[in-house]
Please model this.
Amino acid sequence: MRKIIIILLLAIVTKGQAQIANRLFSKDPIINLENFQKQRLHFGFYLGFNSYDFKMDYKTVSEDIQVKKSNGFNVGLVADLKLHEYIRLRFEPGLYYTKRDLYYPLSYFPTTPTRSDVIREVNSTNLHFPLLLKFSALRTGNVRPYLLGGVSATLNLSSNSKVIDDNSEDIFRVKPWTTNYELGFGIDIFSEYFIFSPSIRGVFGLNDELIRDNDANSPWTGNIESMKTRAVFINFTFH
Model:
């Protein structure tokens, strides 16, 4: 899926780069889709990538649990409602897939642990529901930068929250629902037939996601005060 997204984006960029450069940066560019954003409501879709992390807080001072991040992919829809000439309300529901590996220090275990003890895979298949405000700058030719900010809720379909077994049986559990706030920026590029909007934003979890093991002294969860999501999204939106 990731390879397909990359090939699609490269094809779009390669095919249109000469035309876009001419129209964007010439002295008197042809104004594309001049009345498009005067619409009260319009829709689109996005493809992109993500990098998820965890912010850990501990009950007592100890070695940090290391989080190995991997790049995941995003796909979703966009509904964009005009509130003001420069302000729009956006709803961007999407599917976000990612994986994080947690590496526990040996000092967390009372006896010498095995390799399977010190590593926990946290797979996430997230349904992400952000509600964002988009603050656009003045349009210059066929380019219009913007800022994004808002809140979101995430449903992790791979949370294992209903599983009775815990880390003693190699099952790492997190809560199914989390809430976040998001901040980012992007740019609208007006082509002849559509608007292409690359953007980047940070996601900051607000609530503790960890489900503790049944043993209060568990080496995997006993010393964790809170575990919250941190993420970076890079999305390519088409209107």
Strands lie at 41-58, 66-69, 71-84, 87-91, 94-103, 119-136, 143-156, 177-190, 195-205, 224-238. The chain has one domain: 2-238. Residues 15-21 have pLDDT under 50 and may be disordered.
